[in-house]
Design brief:
single chain; alpha+beta; 2 domains; 5-stranded antiparallel β-sheet; 6 helices
């Protein structure tokens, strides 16, 4: 309740304040209006509520929690959520969210077909934003990792015209003792 009071103290229009206050109450109501709290009069969840719902579910299924031992990689989470588009999630907003996050969001640990492992650092616009740049990691003898060069996954072999590196799969960084931010912020 204290957070609601803080929102009401904002120097913003009453209309904007009401939208901000409403979203947290709505974010467990699904796109098809199932979920909770159960409301009889609602025909549509607000835009802010639908956005918050997508962000909340994504965060919940990609973050470690005390009540479960495993969680999804970002690409698995997007795929999982896409299966519920139109039922649980606004399909248009979810598609925009997926595009903005990228197939492999920044910070995702990847295994490449070259045997290398790296962390997604960004999506360069010159490649159309479809394939990321990746900071390669080199395993040291004591089981730790050292930052390597940054490579662009859109780079092609001049002889064959095929991509030099391809993603095999995403990996769980935490289970390998890797903190992606520590490599990306160096």
């Amino acid at each position: 309740m204290a957070s609601v009071r803080q929102i009401l103290k904002l120097h913003a229009s009453h209309e904007l304040k009401s939208k901000i206050v409403l979203a947290p109450f709505e974010h467990h109501i699904k796109f098809d209006l199932s979920g909770y709290p159960h409301v009889l009069f609602k025909n549509k969840v607000s835009l802010f509520g639908r956005i918050l719902q997508i962000a909340d579910v994504y965060d919940a299924i990609t973050s470690p929690r005390a009540y479960r031992s495993s969680y999804m990689s970002p690409d698995q989470a997007i795929g999982f959520m896409m299966k519920s588009a139109g039922k649980d999630f606004d399909p248009v907003l979810l598609k925009v969210f997926a595009i903005m996050m990228g197939t492999y969001p920044v910070g995702t640990l990847l295994e490449l077909d070259t045997g290398e492992m790296g962390i997604v650092s960004n999506y360069p616009m010159e490649s159309g934003g479809h394939l990321p740049r990746v900071v390669l990691l080199h395993k040291e003898s004591e089981g730790t990792y050292k930052r390597g060069e940054t490579v662009d996954l859109s780079e092609k072999d001049p002889d064959t015209g095929s991509l030099r590196r391809n993603v095999v799969k995403s990996l769980n960084a935490a289970s390998r003792g890797i903190q992606p931010a520590s490599f990306l912020l160096q």
